[in-house]
Amino acid sequence: MERVNVLQEILEWSQSRPEWQRDALRRLVSKGELADSDIRELANLCKSRHGLGDRETPVPLNANHLPKSGAETKPVLLQSLTHHAGVNALAQDQTIQFGGSLTVVYGANAAGKSGYTRVLKRACRARGAEEILGNVVSGTAPGRPSATIKFTANEKSHDHLWDDDQLPNPILSRVSVFDHHCASVYVSQQTDVAFRPLGLDLFDKLSAACEAVKKALEKEREALEILSLKFPNVDYGTAVHDLVTNLTPLTDPATVHELAILTDCDRRRRDDIRNRIRDLTSEDPKKTARAVELRAARAKVLVERVTNAQVILSDTEIGELFTAHEKTTETQRVLETLQRETFREQPLLNTGSAAWRTLWNAAEKFSTTNAYPDRAFPYTEEGSRCVLCQQQLNDEGMERLQQFREFVGSTAQREHEMATDEYNRKRQQFKDAVVLDDKAMEVLEELKLDDDDLFEAIQATLKAAEARRELVDTAITESLPAPTTLPGRPLDVSILTDHIESLENRVNELRKAEDPEAISKLRTELGELEAREVLAENLSTVLEEIERKKKIAVYQMCINETRTNSITRKSSDVTRRAVTEQLTRCFSDELDGLRFHHVEVQMVDTGGSRGALYHKLQLRRAPGVDVSKVASEGEARCLSIASFFAELSTAADRSAILFDDPVSSLDHSWRENVAKRLVVESKSRQVIIFTHDMVFLVALVEKASELDVELQHQYLRRDNTAAGLSSQELPWAALKVRDRIGRLNALWQDAERTFRNGDSGKYEKDASYIYGLLREAWERGVEEVLLAGTVERYRNSVQTQRANQLADICDNDIGTLNIGMTKCSKWLTGHDQSLADNSPIPGPNEVKEDIDALATWIQNIRKRRGN
Predict the structure, then answer these.
(1) Which pLDDT value is given to residue 682?
(2) How many other C-beta atoms can be found within 10 angstroms of the C-beta atom of residue 248?
(3) Alpha carbon distances (Å) from 442 to 307, 309, 468, 538
(4) Do the beta carbons of residue 84 and residue 92 sit within 8 Å?
(5) How many CB atoms lie under 10 A from the CB of residue 529?
């Protein structure tokens, strides 16, 4: 099956994520971890997307941010561990060296092995780090635990000075440890995969980033939630009360504005209702009704005055007045010009003037009424007389009267008369316009008691009108041009008629004062108006509350974006495809390699949480039964080792792995299989094994030899003062026969030196000790060489395929063996010598010959067999 490209999957999936999460993924890919400043910036990105703060531009993850494919991570390899102080009873400045392939650190119980492994578990990746104590039985205060771990990373050497208080080294955390804690977790608990393909950890880190952003957002939201609206009490049930009580982020500010606006009409209505309530609750409502009725009647005077002010003193009427005045003046000039031309030769001055015209009109009236009622004026026929001097008219008199008649009946005269009449009419109307007199002021003062605002408005209008009238009158009287600017205070007379109507309604209500519902309705209406007035006074506070609730709602939208459900689902999906199949297949293969077939166990996933996918071991035929209750201790350890290696298979990282007593609870039937598995693994990565099991140690040595793996030994022991003393020699019991011969030769050199120094007593002890070990070497030679490993102690199988090598065993082989064993038995400590046999212990040369005899015997057999 084609391997899943996790980073490409994440890139494609991220297209559907909020932009700030895509930015977070970019940061995680480039930086690995997020700092507090990153969290703050991501929180701001999240908020700005929803309008909280200035808009910020994220930088989402794209293909250019992904690491190039094919880049390999160099493994982390341990070189050495040096204990300085403070760890259990370990001796100071002791060093364990680690080889590049397989290192076995052997130590018997109480030799100090646990002290070294505890340091490594604290420094590396382990499922269960143990507390480190000092040498509590030494009688002195233990020092601070410290050690130096040398390792290579990216092919560069590093010295890490470790102490128990510092944070873990992220590079050393790539080194994995298997111990009894790990074994317990694998078998009895569900566990998330510790090693995952490159990029799969981004889900966990993105989930952690979401949690951190959520925490920051919730802190800001909580600061907003602490605040609350402080609004004055208003009547329950009013529109304002309902609005303020039920404010939500969706409350329309325009609705609030509309409710908070009180027009002048609303304010007059409010004052009117207050007056009406006061009237209705007075001691004698009917008496109050009569007083209010009189005020309403008197207030009509103001309607007349305001009407006059707005009609007679309007700009239009004033303009027409000045126009009439100008027309009268103009026609007068025209008429005077005609007069001068007409009466130029008349004997009397000012003939045709206004005074003359009065005389003419009087004469006309007398003529048509008394003298000549049947004749048109002037009567100038034969025999007619002048109605003024009553003399008979002559031709000159008749001609003069005819001339006068033509003048009086001329167009200029008619136009002047018409203009004069129009002007006089308007001038008289203007003079008769009473605006602000004592009567009006009296009514105004009375109005002030009911409505101060209305009083101010009407008084201002009437005063402005009176000022207009005075200015116009002065201009007309003094024949001045019309004023270019005139004071004015327009007023809608309906507000006054409404007031009068309100007074009349109050009268009607007062006359029906026994109706309790009337007062209740008025109080309800007044409550609405007063509540709206309170809202107007606190409008900004209410609008701020809406904004606060909007912000809280937006913060919740931002917090909703931090949910990790979808991240977990995607992580589970990718992990199932990229890890679970690999994990389960490798777990099955590991069990096959360990020859674990008698109990059918499988690894299954158990779902995800916050970006991690969990797995556990399950009995195939009884999935509901806990594996730890069925498997023996040895079986459980095998299952754990298989789980550990299956987990390792999911990562490309080939860093070192460390095992702390991997077979401490296994019986001999599993040791060899586990030893082989660990040695096989050491062919492709560094494997370090700490063990106190000698049989397991021997099995590791043999498997390393069989598979041609370089094996480095470390032997831990203790003396009377401290534990953890380290050397690179294996214990005698674990040595192959060839290595035992080498050890014997080294011991012989020390004994020979003692002999030459003349210390015979010590030499005898050393020689006796050498013969004891030589006998054990002969026994190991029988197992390993003569019988070709067909049968070995502590091994539960017989290697029958090697039996064909036994056919060449001859009497000489057996004879040499018997001679050697017999001589060793004579001189080794523990065999009592006969009293008659008082022969001295062999000298150095003879001892060397006996050692060489074993070496020659082994060499001859192997040479004969070609190995």
Answers:
(1) 93
(2) 9
(3) 18, 18, 21, 39
(4) yes
(5) 18
| Degrees to nearest 5, angle at CA 490 with 488 and 491 | 145
| Contact predicate 842/760, CB 8 Å | no
Distances, alpha carbon 679 to alpha carbons 69, 183, 248, 699, 865, in Å: 31, 20, 70, 10, 27
Longest pairwise C-alpha distance within the chain: 223
Edge to edge, the sheet with strand 156-163 lists: 94-97, 77-85, 146-153, 156-163
* ∠ Cα 648 650 652 (to 5°): 85
pLDDT digits (tens, 9 = 90+) for 317-366: 777 778 888 888 777 777 677 666 666 666 777 776 777 777 777 777 77
Its pTM stands at 0.53
**CB-based contacts of 251: which residues, under 8 Å, 6+ apart?**
243, 546, 549
β-pairing, 77-85 vs 94-97, is: antiparallel
**Rounded CA separation 654/295 (Å):** 106
Q: Cα angle at 327 between 326 and 328, to 5 degrees? A: 90
Token pair for residue 451? 């409505």
Cβ-proximal residues to 415 (8 Å cutoff; 6+ apart), any chain: 331, 334
* SS3 per-residue string spanning 297-339: HHHHHHHHHHHHHHHCCCHHHHHHHHHHHHHHHHHHHHHHHHH
Contact 176, 653 (CB under 8 A): no
Q: 301, 443 in Cβ contact below 8 A?
A: yes
Within a 10 A sphere around the Cβ of 583, how many other Cβ atoms?
25
Give the tens place of pLDDT for each residue, 783-812. 888 887 777 766 666 777 777 777 788 888
Q: Per the structure block, which two tokens stand in for 764?
A: 């005898």
Asked if 87 and 37 count as a contact pair (C-beta separation under 8 A), the reply is: no
Alpha-carbon gap, residue 92 to 416, rounded angstroms: 139
Q: Residues 481, 475: contact at Cβ < 8 Å?
A: yes
Alpha-carbon distance of 543 to 252, in angstroms, equals 9
Measured between alpha carbons, how far is 102 from 105 in angstroms, rounded to an integer? 10
pLDDT at site 26: 92
Q: Which amino acid is at 754?
A: T
Strand partners, 192: 614
Is the pLDDT at 550 greater than 70, yes or no?
yes
168 in Cβ contact with 149 (< 8 Å): no
Give 133-178 as a DSSP string. Answer: ---TTSSS-----EEEEEEEETTEEEEEEEETTSPPPTTGGGSEEE
Joined tokens for residue 550: 């909007």
Please state, in angstroms and rounded to a whole number, the distance separating the CA atoms of residues 408 and 361.
Answer: 10
- Report the distance separating Cα 168 and Cα 125, nearest Å: 9
**Reported confidence tier of residue 681, pLDDT bands at 50, 70, 90:** very high
